[in-house]
């Protein structure tokens, strides 16, 4: 009986997954559980970003995949092969370390050639030169790492790992030490290289913009667990937890009570106003929840003005702060129930800019709203200061 | 600007002054006097005084008469240094990478023997290696040593004493070098398909070379010149060069021969060190 019930699962588990798969991976240090029952599927050939705040266990997860740390429990498989306990030097996995970890006593050529030489690969010279060309460092081949700039060292670290054509390339905050401008150009560069070589990249970062611009799939990690995983736009538009709503961009979260649920819409009493949220964007079964809306989805207008947003209209706001940031104007609007909501309006030039103290009405299209679990902390994942 | 530069230059010279004076007084002058003495006429004596007659023949004499102790000293020094390097490397590696919070305590233990005098420590090796001591008894029991075989008064005892006495001079510079190695480099070598043993020879060892060079020099140079170990633990008919020099100065009162021997020893060590540093320096050092 139970055998029969389990059969479909069994079949699904037996089909070898050709990507990287983590199943209930846990890593407990003496006093601290850094990774707690993590499940992760990284499709072969994808650019996968592991996004989370500092200390959430990203590095520990990567180190377990690289074999530099042994999981306390759980399993890691790569292209169907169990590598949970394989020695690091036996795994088809290479890492671009957070600190680069270039060998200071070897020149750039020998740094890049290191992995090939260990595996007695033929034609080291040609391969290294091709790789140095790819990262545009041909002229630096005979220099020592200390003679290179940070951006160049970063590219050496990338080349040194990439040349081995690993099943999975792990990048641990590879751009963290670079200044903003260089970081942006390296993001494009790394993305270009990944498309060119077609390998699986797992890119760890705490920078949500970096994750969204580079990756096909983003997994948002928090306190040793994956909160949500999906394409960047999907995560951004339809977050399932307050943490994702705040960590990926910004969100207004307003307390509400569920009035009714139908097949395609949930109606919520939000501070005395009835608003609707599509069922596909309703992420709680409770009687209460957080109504969420992104600041750029909120329209601002004069009292009584008919805004282009049939459905959810919230009157009685007072502008409390205006910041002009060029492409947009960012308002803070105090609502009748005392909460301040964020509104970003594009500076199209077609609308008047409001001043602090003015009475306004807010509105948004129901299809942009989402409903989250009331028991979650509305401030989770928020960057300090942004919502203050 | 040039004014501050000039002042900085002056301050620099002032700071150098004590060292220059010290070296001039206690190195250059004695060195010159030693060199001169080595060329004095051997027929003179402390009593009657010496005559300077550029007796380069002194050098021929000492090389002919004392090449054996000279070679013996270099050999003892080289063997003791090699053993110190192996023992010291393992110890320094363990302290740097594996000792964790015991690191400082273990370093103190390494230099703890210095709290006792060099002589006392060497004398106690006499007890350890004595003919009815534990070690000799055990070696005899397992037939590594004949029934009347002994360790005392053999080269083995001298090398053991040298190794023991100079080990800290090897361990400390090695530790300083190994401790500085970023552990992530070793992880990176593993990530790049290097077996731990290969990783050691490709990463850890080359990065620790500065410590290897200074450790071997700090051990080899004093070990070659040392004669306390040979006198206390060795045999009287297997003298080392230090003993010969000492007895020429004190017992035989033959200053020119003693001085010429000292010069030969010094020249040999300088040449060997230069060759060694050159090789180590150009091939592997950063
Ligand atoms: N070797 C270790 N021993 C104890 N705690 C550790 C160790 N390594 C990491 N941690 C802890 O595990 C947590 C996750 O660390 P890490 O994976 O480096 O986070 P991230 O890379 O996301 O910033 C941190 O709180 C860190 O202090
Ligand atoms: Mg990290």
UniProtKB/TrEMBL annotation, chain A:
Please name the Gene3D superfamilies in this protein's record: 2.40.50.100, P-loop containing nucleotide triphosphate hydrolases
Q: Which InterPro entries match?
A: AAA+_ATPase, ABC_SmlMolc_Importer, ABC_transporter-like_ATP-bd, ABC_transporter-like_CS, Mo/tungstate-bd_C_term_dom, P-loop_NTPase, PotA-like, PotA_ATP-bd
Ranges where the ABC transporter domain occurs: 20-248
Question: In this entry, which stretches build a coiled coil?
Answer: none
Q: Which UniProt keywords apply?
A: ATP-binding, Cell membrane, Membrane, Nucleotide-binding, Translocase, Transport
The record ties this protein, via Pfam families, to: ABC_tran, TOBE_2
Q: Fetch the PROSITE patterns from UniProt.
A: ABC_TRANSPORTER_1 (PS00211), ABC_TRANSPORTER_2 (PS50893)
SUPFAM superfamilies linked: MOP-like, P-loop containing nucleoside triphosphate hydrolases
**Does the record's keyword annotation contain Transport?**
yes
Is Transport among the key words of this record? yes
Molecular function terms, GO-annotated:
ABC-type putrescine transporter activity; ATP binding; ATP hydrolysis activity
Q: What GO cellular component term, any one, is given?
A: ATP-binding cassette (ABC) transporter complex
Protein name stated in the entry:
Unannotated protein
Q: Which organism is it from?
A: freshwater metagenome
From TrEMBL, chain B:
Membrane-spanning parts: 12-35, 74-97, 104-123, 152-176, 257-277
This protein's record includes keyword Transport: yes
Keywords on record: Cell membrane, Membrane, Transmembrane, Transmembrane helix, Transport
Query: Which InterPro entries does its entry note?
Result: MetI-like, MetI-like_sf
Where does this protein reside within or beyond the cell?
Cell membrane
GO biological-process terms attached to the record: transmembrane transport
Example GO CC term: the record gives: plasma membrane
The protein's topology relative to the membrane is: Multi-pass membrane protein
All residue ranges annotated as the ABC transmembrane type-1 domain in the record: 70-276
Tell me its family. Answer: Belongs to the binding-protein-dependent transport system permease family. CysTW subfamily.
Protein name (record): Unannotated protein
> Organism, per UniProt?
freshwater metagenome
């Amino acid at each position: 009986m139970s055998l029969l019930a389990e059969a479909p699962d069994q079949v699904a588990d037996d089909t070898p997954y050709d990507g990287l798969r983590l199943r209930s991976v846990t890593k407990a240090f003496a006093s601290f559980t850094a990774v707690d029952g993590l499940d992760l599927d990284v499709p072969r050939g994808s650019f996968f970003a592991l996004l989370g705040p500092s200390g959430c266990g990203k590095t520990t997860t990567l180190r377990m995949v690289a074999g530099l740390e042994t999981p306390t429990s759980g399993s890691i498989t790569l292209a169907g092969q169990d590598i949970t306990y394989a020695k690091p030097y036996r795994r088809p996995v290479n890492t671009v370390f957070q600190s680069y970890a270039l060998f200071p006593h070897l020149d750039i050529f020998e740094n890049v050639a290191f992995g090939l030489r260990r595996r007695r690969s033929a034609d080291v010279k040609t391969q290294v030169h091709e790789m140095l060309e790819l990262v545009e460092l041909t002229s630096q081949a005979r220099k020592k790492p200390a003679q290179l700039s940070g951006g160049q060292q970063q590219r050496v670290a990338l080349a040194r790992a990439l040349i081995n054509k690993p099943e999975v390339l792990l990048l641990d905050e590879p751009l963290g030490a670079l200044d903003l401008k260089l970081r942006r150009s390296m993001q494009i560069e790394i993305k270009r290289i990944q498309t060119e070589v077609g390998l699986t990249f797992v890119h760890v970062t705490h920078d949500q913009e970096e994750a969204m611009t580079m990756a096909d799939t983003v997994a948002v990690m928090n306190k040793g667990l994956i909160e949500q995983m999906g394409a960047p736009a999907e995560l951004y538009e339809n977050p399932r937890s307050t943490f994702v709503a705040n960590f990926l961009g910004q969100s207004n979260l307003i307390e509400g009570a569920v009035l009714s649920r139908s097949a395609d819409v949930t109606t919520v009493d939000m501070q005395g106003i009835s608003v609707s949220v599509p069922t596909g964007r309703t992420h709680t079964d409770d009687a209460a929840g957080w109504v969420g809306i992104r600041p750029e989805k909120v329209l601002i207008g004069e009292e009584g003005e008919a805004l282009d947003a049939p459905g959810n209209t919230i009157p009685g706001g007072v502008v409390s702060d205006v910041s002009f940031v060029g492409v947009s104007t960012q308002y803070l609007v105090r609502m009748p129930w005392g909460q301040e909501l964020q509104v970003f309006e594009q500076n199209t030039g077609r609308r008047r800019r409001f001043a602090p103290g003015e009475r306004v009405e807010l509105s948004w299209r129901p299809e942009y709203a989402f409903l989250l679990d009331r028991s979650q902390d509305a401030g989770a994942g928020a960057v300090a200061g942004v919502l203050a | 600007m040039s004014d501050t530069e000039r002042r900085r230059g002056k301050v620099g010279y002032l700071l150098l002054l004590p060292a220059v004076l010290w070296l001039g007084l206690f190195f250059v002058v004695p060195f010159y006097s030693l060199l001169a003495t080595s060329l004095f006429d051997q027929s003179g004596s402390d009593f009657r005084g010496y005559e300077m007659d550029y007796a380069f023949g002194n050098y021929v004499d000492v090389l002919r008469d004392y090449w054996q102790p000279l070679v013996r000293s270099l050999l003892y020094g080289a063997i003791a240094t090699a053993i110190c390097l192996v023992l010291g490397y393992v110890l320094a590696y363990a302290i740097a990478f594996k000792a964790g919070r015991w690191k400082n305590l273990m370093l103190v233990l390494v230099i703890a023997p210095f709290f006792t005098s060099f002589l006392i420590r060497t004398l106690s090796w006499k007890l350890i290696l004595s003919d009815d001591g534990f070690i000799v008894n055990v070696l005899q029991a397992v037939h590594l040593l004949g029934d009347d075989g002994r360790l005392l008064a053999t080269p083995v005892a001298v090398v053991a004493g040298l190794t023991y006495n100079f080990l800290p001079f090897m361990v400390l510079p090695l530790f300083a070098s190994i401790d500085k190695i970023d552990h992530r480099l070793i992880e990176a070598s593993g990530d790049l398909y290097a077996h731990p043993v290969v990783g050691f020879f490709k990463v850890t060892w080359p990065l620790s070379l500065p410590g290897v060079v200074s450790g071997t020099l700090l051990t080899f140079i004093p070990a070659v010149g040392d004669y306390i170990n040979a006198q206390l633990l060795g045999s009287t008919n297997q003298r080392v060069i230090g003993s010969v020099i000492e007895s020429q100065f004190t017992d035989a009162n033959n200053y020119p021969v003693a001085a010429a021997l000292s010069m030969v020893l010094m020249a040999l060590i300088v040449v060997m060190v230069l060759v060694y540093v050159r090789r180590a320096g150009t091939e592997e050092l950063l």
